[in-house]
């Protein structure tokens, strides 16, 4: 068996650290405080998703820029800090960028609710695959359950996050 050098072991450990926590974020219900409107919890939800990926605010700002194909400017770190502190609310463009960058539904960012079992699993998977197919265009490959699409989307997000962390 070939023996690994100290440098190779260090590089492998660093690579594993870089990708640790990059599994898809699975949001749990996070409701706003009693008596507050649903959007009052956007900051806490945004911070939970950002922390899952172990991103600094600056790294998330850079990540949103990679998803901003129309304007190419993303969301500034200052704006993100204001959202997390509940000092400002994101607009529709910013909600779209945050949703795409963090792999969460905009409904979760706004309301804190996770999708319920309103549709059978197969129908939800088909709907998710269709949405992704429409976003990706004709280059999308769709498995029966849509799993390949979810995998491709997660791989792209992982790669973008890894690039941002470098």
In short:
The protein is globular, with a radius of gyration of 18 Å.
Attribute tags:
mainly alpha, 434 Repressor (Amino-terminal Domain), single chain, 166 residues, 2 domains
Write the layout of secondary structure elements.
Blueprint: H1 6-19, H2 42-52, H3 57-67, H4 77-84, H5 92-102, H6 106-111, H7 121-136, H8 147-165
Helix pairs in contact: 3-5, 3-8, 7-8
Structure description:
The structure is a single chain. This protein has 166 residues and is mostly helical. It folds into 2 domains: 28-115, lambda repressor-like DNA-binding domains (434 Repressor (Amino-terminal Domain), Orthogonal Bundle); 116-166. The chain contains 8 helices and no strands. Helix 7 (121-136) crosses helix 8. 21% of the residues are buried. The model is unreliable at 1-21 (pLDDT under 50).
- Name of the CATH superfamily of the largest domain: lambda repressor-like DNA-binding domains
- Please outline the major beta sheet: none
Order of helices and strands: HHHHHHHH
How large is the count of helical segments? Answer: 8
Poorly predicted spans: 1-21
Q: How much helix, percentage-wise, in residues?
A: 55-70%
- Tell me what portion of residues adopts beta-strand conformation: under 5%
Number of domains: 2
Any idea what the radius of gyration is?
18 Å
């Amino acid at each position: 068996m070939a023996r690994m050098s100290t440098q190779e072991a260090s590089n492998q450990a660093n690579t594993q650290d870089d990708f640790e926590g990059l599994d898809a974020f699975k949001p749990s219900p996070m409701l706003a405080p009693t008596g507050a409107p649903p959007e009052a919890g956007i900051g806490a939800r945004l911070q939970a998703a950002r922390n899952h990926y172990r991103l600094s605010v600056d790294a998330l700002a850079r990540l949103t820029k990679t998803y901003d194909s129309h304007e190419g400017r993303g969301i500034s770190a200052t704006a993100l800090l204001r959202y997390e502190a509940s000092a400002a609310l994101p607009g529709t463009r910013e909600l779209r960028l945050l949703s795409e960058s963090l792999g969460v539904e905009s409904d979760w960012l706004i309301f804190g609710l996770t999708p319920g079992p309103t549709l059978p699993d197969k129908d939800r998977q088909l709907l998710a695959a269709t949405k992704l197919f429409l976003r990706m265009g004709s280059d999308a490959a769709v498995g029966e359950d849509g799993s390949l699409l979810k995998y491709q989307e997660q791989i792209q997000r992982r790669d973008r996050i890894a690039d941002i962390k470098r």
